[in-house]
Design goal:
Shape: globular
Number of domains: 1
CATH topology: Alpha/beta knot
Number of helices: 5
CATH superfamily: SPOUT methyltransferase, trefoil knot domain
Helix content: 25-40%
CATH class: Alpha Beta
Oligomer: single chain
Largest sheet: 7 strands, parallel
CATH architecture: 3-Layer(aba) Sandwich
Strand order of the largest sheet: 3-2-1-6-4-7-5
Order of helices and strands: EHEHEHEEEHEH
Number of strands: 7
């Protein structure tokens, strides 16, 4: 199972996902461009000392990521999703993809996703924080996959 972030804009979210990657033993893929420099102090502070434990790979763009993504389904977490998290069955080789905090993912990425999932929240709420969503989604996927 892999965790992927599409053009994240907030370094603290990437830092928190580095920690998720390290704590749960999954690969983290960051698809650039990002909205910050990778030497940004805020990202380093958010990741604390978990950076060396994570399995992070940076990709120059979407095409570079797709070229090496490998087998398994691409499961897009989105507010425009079709299947609620509670009704989706994950597989051990899934890649869980989360979009940019400010713009999500473009329609072209939606089109190639094998599945689209949303995390049910209150109707008046717009969305969850990226790293919170990644934690919820990853935990449920790992729980199901054993």
């Amino acid at each position: 199972m892999r965790l992927a972030l599409f053009q994240p804009a907030i370094p603290q979210n990437v830092g928190a996902c580095i920690r998720l990657s390290a704590c749960f033993g999954v690969e983290l893929h960051v698809i650039e461009p990002t909205g910050f420099a990778f030497d940004d102090r805020a990202m380093k502070r958010a990741a604390l000392d978990y950076g060396p434990l994570s399995h992070m790979t940076r990709h120059a763009d979407w095409d570079a990521f797709q070229a090496v993504r490998g087998t398994g389904r691409l499961v897009l977490f989105t507010t425009r999703g079709a299947t609620p998290l509670t009704g989706f069955t994950f597989r051990p080789d899934d890649t869980l993809l989360f979009g940019s905090e400010t713009s999500g993912v473009p329609d072209s990425v939606h089109a190639v996703a094998d599945a689209r999932v949303f995390i049910p929240i209150q109707p008046e709420a717009r969305s969850l924080n990226l790293s919170v969503s990644a934690g919820i989604g990853l935990f449920e996927a790992l729980r199901q996959a054993g």
